[in-house]
Amino acid sequence: MAMKLVPLIIALAFIISDVHGCKCGFQNFHRQFCASKYVLYGKVITEKLVDGGSVRNKDFRRYTIRILNRMKGVSERIGSDVDIETPKQSASCGVNLEVGNSYILMGNKRADGTKTIISCDFPTQLISLSPYQAFYMFTSGPFSYKLNCRRGCSKIDENSVGCKLDRIGNELTACLSKYALCKKQGRTCVWFHNNKC
């Protein structure tokens, strides 16, 4: 009897180990801006499915993006095209962007400089941002994500001293992400414009 169960257990273990999905966990726009290697606003020009070869689940999408605005880590000029790659499958955190639409894209770079993006990187259309998020995103002064990331206000989580956020998404977390800025004030970082929350 036990010998009959061994193949079944092995098969179940193989199936279970192969099942996975995309989990992003705690997200905040300011935090993601700081953690990203590049941030840009661009229009999707083309989408191409690329075969990853014999390796299972390595197929990917390559989007050609026309740069409309550069916020961080982008050396290409405004108006030029850049390729960004993402996994093909949404279970692998792949992103589906529509050709012709414009998005704010934040992501990472491989060692060879190739830009990548996954769904946890907040690909979003400008219309989805609050006016506060758009201002913090596109400006470069003291009320910008960019400057405050450089000043060290990038630790935004449950262990943060000044800009604490609950790891579990709740109303306060969503409100702070939508309206507030983790801003350097003196030697510490504090929530600025959080009176709406």
TrEMBL record:
SUPFAM superfamilies: TIMP-like. Zn(2+) binds at residue 22. Residues 22-149 form the NTR domain. GO terms for cellular component: extracellular matrix; extracellular space. Residues 1-21 form the signal peptide. Keywords: Disulfide bond, Metal-binding, Secreted, Signal, Zinc. GO terms for biological process: negative regulation of membrane protein ectodomain proteolysis. GO terms for molecular function: metal ion binding; metalloendopeptidase inhibitor activity; protease binding. The keyword Methyltransferase does not apply. The keyword Zinc applies. This is NTR domain-containing protein. It comes from Mytilus coruscus (Sea mussel).
